[in-house]
Amino acid sequence: MPFSQKILQWYAENKRELPWRSTTDPYKIWLSEIMLQQTRVAQGTPYYLKFVKHFPTVVHLADAPEEEVLKLWQGLGYYSRARNLHATAKKVAYKMNGEFPDSYAELIKLKGIGDYTASAIASICFGELQPVVDGNVFRVLARYFGVDRPINDSGGPKYFKKLAREVMPLEEIREYNQGIMEFGAIQCAPKKPYCLHCPLNESCVALQKNKVHELPIKLRKTKVRNRFFNYLVVLGQNEQGESVSILNQRTGKGIWQNLYEFPLVESEARIGLDTLKKSIPSNLQPDLINEINLYNEKEIVHKLSHQHLHTRFWIVKTTAVISKGIPLKDLEKYAVPVLIAEFMKAFKF
């Protein structure tokens, strides 16, 4: 039995019942594929259901304010996905009459849609013969065929795309593409693959050569950068006597663009109270601050793909009138990084 037929048979017997598997609506397939990039199915599924409930069509998503989209996305990480999602929704809704393109060639022109996502939508929704190559597929192909070239060198993705095209079936492409991704996620898993009961084990090169845990090969290109964040959790009152705090919106092209955070003092290394006091921004009126206490002595290390944020929160009490302060009861309405959201849950305002 050919490779593709074994995948199809395995998928028919083992596929999970997932909410986006019951539709070929390109909006919902696109939504699920964007959310599941660098995100586990178990984590992404509640977000998918939440988004579909709030934004049942691409027009609903396009009409929503960006802050609402970012707030719903909060906790999924890689927030550029959410911003690109919103930008593409606007283009499809307002310039394409709410209709997604029905071909790989046109889909890949949309913001935030790369080769994999365009292939997935084109094949699953429109039956176009396009192979998908994501992390799961890289792993299946590398192990089964014993490919020892890196998946992320200059020609790696192109090589695996060609191989994926050679072994895909000319029929049932929708089921096959979902099947090979599912196979990589469940059967040919990264750390504990079920090789003993695998339908491909008799012809899997990696298994025969005892290289299952060596493949696929991925070059380590990104050097992790350590950054030291000191958040100033300001507590004061506004003109009406309400208890308020301060959140600033991040701008620029760095991490967490357009999300909100407490006033930040970034340092080259861990700092103490005396150094922190010298770095407090003038707009916080340092002379009117009457108390600063460290909330967490042990740094919270928040790990992103290319940087580690060593974070401490400082509780800053001030007698200054905070005219544009945010009432404490409204803080949770703002889209913040998960690091800030977890602090807000733990700290009793």
UniProtKB/TrEMBL annotation:
Keywords per UniProt: 4Fe-4S, DNA damage, DNA repair, Glycosidase, Hydrolase, Iron, Iron-sulfur, Metal-binding
Cofactor note as given: Binds 1 [4Fe-4S] cluster.
Keyword Iron: yes
InterPro entries: A/G_AdeGlyc_MutY, DNA_glycosylase, HhH-GPD_domain, HhH_base_excis_C, HhH_motif, MIG/MutY, MutY_C, NUDIX_hydrolase-like_dom_sf
Source organism, top-level taxon: Bacteria
GO biological processes: base-excision repair; mismatch repair
Cofactor(s) in the UniProt record: [4Fe-4S] cluster
Function text: Adenine glycosylase active on G-A mispairs. MutY also corrects error-prone DNA synthesis past GO lesions which are due to the oxidatively damaged form of guanine: 7,8-dihydro-8-oxoguanine (8-oxo-dGTP).
Catalytic activity annotation: Hydrolyzes free adenine bases from 7,8-dihydro-8-oxoguanine:adenine mismatched double-stranded DNA, leaving an apurinic site
The enzyme's E.C. designation: 3.2.2.31
Keyword DNA damage listed: yes
Protein name per its UniProtKB record: Adenine DNA glycosylase
Upper classification of the organism: Bacteria, Pseudomonadati, Bacteroidota, Flavobacteriia, Flavobacteriales
UniProt GO MF annotations: 4 iron, 4 sulfur cluster binding; 8-oxo-7,8-dihydroguanine DNA N-glycosylase activity; adenine/guanine mispair binding; metal ion binding; oxidized purine DNA binding; purine-specific mismatch base pair DNA N-glycosylase activity
Domain HhH-GPD: 35-186
SMART domains on file: ENDO3c
Entry similarity comment: Belongs to the Nth/MutY family.
